[in-house]
Write a structure and sequence with these properties.
Blueprint lengths: L1 H21 L7 E8 L7 H17 L4 E3 L30 H10 L2 E8 L2 E8 L2 E6 L20 E3 L2 E7 L6 H9 L4 E5 L7 H15 L3 E4 L8 E3 L5 E4 L5 E8 H10 L17
Parallel strand pairs: 1-2, 2-3, 7-8, 8-9
Antiparallel strand pairs: 1-12, 3-4, 4-5, 6-7, 9-10, 10-11
Length: 281
């Protein structure tokens, strides 16, 4: 047992040293992250904004530096103009609906992730150090197809906290999205969703699978109506899991442990794309 513990400690130190060489700009290899499982009220923008800011305060008080909101957390899927509680349920550049969250990110030196509607796009965003980067939802589901179009490209978001592999809701069902992000160097995966409670077991299984098959941490943030938000490490172990209520879950993820796990089981080194063919077409 002592030899096993010593061996693991040496491996962790080795992985940390490798991480320093690979990720010299990251402020921490271990960081505290939060999934904010918010109750999202369709078209009730003022109420959602107030709730989101309150939940962010709770997560920050617990030391979280990466805050993840669910899909369309300010508006929900608001399709009927007569039901909107303000002039518009979508946002356009420079996205003034996020001004208070920009200020929050700068004041607390944290990363804030969520999604907003902009025209016909469901845009995931990362607010970091006064900058905003956007990534579109790729796959559009059900009634959404009458109001949204899918994005045309997949790439990680570079932040001070690492390269974020951002995907939105229905994208979780397509393993190609997460694998593409992983192959492009994403450090951890973030999924924003409004998965319904009736499919919660599928949500849980898919969220764990995306972490395990890509050997990277996964922050899977669902809305409170669906519940079951998860923070999963690169080994597929659940670090935190929400129930069905509005709540914030917090955990520490460790990129050096991810690197150690990839050294122990080097799946990416053993891939054989030359024989996979064009199965994805």
């Amino acid at each position: 047992m002592a030899l096993h513990t010593l061996s693991r400690a040496v491996n962790v130190l080795l992985a940390s040293a490798i991480s320093i060489l690979i990720y010299p700009k990251l402020p921490y290899f271990s960081m505290r992250v939060a999934c904010l499982q918010q109750q999202v009220l369709p078209c009730k923008i003022e109420e959602n904004l107030s709730t989101g800011l309150q939940m962010a305060g709770v997560a920050l008080a617990e030391g979280a530096r990466v805050l993840v909101f669910p899909e369309l957390f300010l508006t929900g899927f608001c399709y009927e103009p007569a039901r909107q509680s303000c002039q518009s349920a979508e946002d356009l550049p420079p996205y003034p609906s996020l001004d208070l969250f920009r200020a929050l990110a700068e004041e607390h030196d944290c990363l804030i992730i969520g999604s907003i509607r902009s025209g016909s796009l469901n845009l995931g965003f990362c607010l970091d150090d006064g900058e905003m980067q956007l990534r579109p939802k790729i796959h559009i589901f059900g009634e959404e197809r009458e109001h949204f179009v899918g994005g045309g490209s997949i790439s990680p978001v570079d932040t001070r906290w690492g390269r974020i592999g951002l995907q939105i809701c229905y994208d979780l069902r397509f393993p190609e999205v997460a694998r593409s992000l992983a192959l492009q160097g994403a450090d951890f995966l973030v999924t924003l969703a409004q998965f319904p409670g009736i499919r919660r077991s599928q949500w849980r299984t898919l969220s764990m699978a995306r972490a395990i098959e890509n050997q990277m941490p996964h922050l899977a943030c669902n809305w409170a109506n669906g519940g079951g938000s998860l923070i999963i490490d690169a080994r597929g172990e659940i670090l935190a899991e929400a129930g069905s209520d509005q709540t914030a879950i917090v955990a520490d993820i460790d990129l050096s442990d991810r690197d150690l796990f990839r050294m122990q089981i080097p799946c990416f080194d053993h891939r054989r794309p030359e024989i996979y063919g064009r199965w994805g077409d």
